[in-house]
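User: hey, got a sec? need histidine kinase folded
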Amino acid sequence: MKRDMTLTLLLTPVVFAPVTARIGAEFGDLPQRSYDVAGILLTVTLWLPLMLRRRRPGICLALVASAFAAHELLGYPQTLASWGLYFALYSFGSHEMRADGGRLGLAAAAATGLYVLFALGLYDRGSPQRTADFVLIYLVLNGCWGIGRAVRARRTVEAEHRRLGTEAARAEERSRIARELHDVVTHHVTAMVVQADAAQYLLAGAPDRVAVSLEAISDSGRHALTDLQHLLGVLKASGGMPVEGGATNDGTAGDRTLGPGRLSDLVEQTRAAGQPVELTESGERRPMATAVELAAYRVVQETLTNALKHAPGHCTKVQVRYGQAEIEVEVTTEGAPARAALPRSRPLGRGGGHGLLGLRERVGVFGGELVSGSRPDGGFRVHARIPSKEPA
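Assistant: Yep! Here you go:
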């Protein structure tokens, strides 16, 4: 790397400085000889290959170890450059990516054999060091490599944690997209199916009212296309990873929030499908996170969709209460649906598990809760409580 090259070159003059002449790793205690050209070249080879310690750690170690062995066997005086062996061993353990189990075993056996030959060479040249000394030095060298190996193992674990975290985030985004698609498509398509069935019914009894149903179908289709375009815009803007809460580039969450008129538009769309809906808002609106507003909007949207599916023609009441620290949404449908209110329609399809369960998960993200169930009179009730701020 560039940093290694710069640092190595800057420290090269220090290697030959007289003040660092005795600060080095000395093996063998052989009689010292005067420096000559060969000694200078070996000293340089002990240090300069450290420029390759990250990019080519194996080559770096081979060059430094060979120069160190020759330097010691020839009896040249020690310098700071001899510490390059320790750095090369550490770098090999830390950065060598091709050292798998089999190759590592062969490399360790070869290195041990070469070290034994090196020790025998020193002994043959008159080294006073004992076998225990060479064993201790061998353990120190292995320790340098082991520290590098431990650092590499830690980096590998951290990288795996990051990878798993990224995969989990992507899985969560895919789940969130599925919920968004369910919320967007199911509501509008359900309304369109109900309106189409009503139009067929009206053809026989009140053909002059068919145009109203067809206009409602057209409006629902346009709203569905608009919502899908917003969702696709999120996907394009984030390279396939939507931002939390479904915000678009301008942060409006596709304009599907509890802002002025948003709920009213949603209620009007549902009324146009033939479903009586009453909307009541109370409390003072306060600034809240966009994702929280979107979650509350989806609660209302999903419950109105369920009312269209399971209680067509019967009054549905929507109550939204703005508190100091939370927002409450309550949707109730009264009693069993009036059979004469709308013609019996064909089945609207099975849910894919993204309805109330998805809403409960969405609300739970913010530390809120959602409760749903049947009422004694045969209707149903959905109650959600959502903190106004996203959790830190």
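Quick note: The chain has two domains: 2-129, 171-387. Let me know if you need anything else on histidine kinase.
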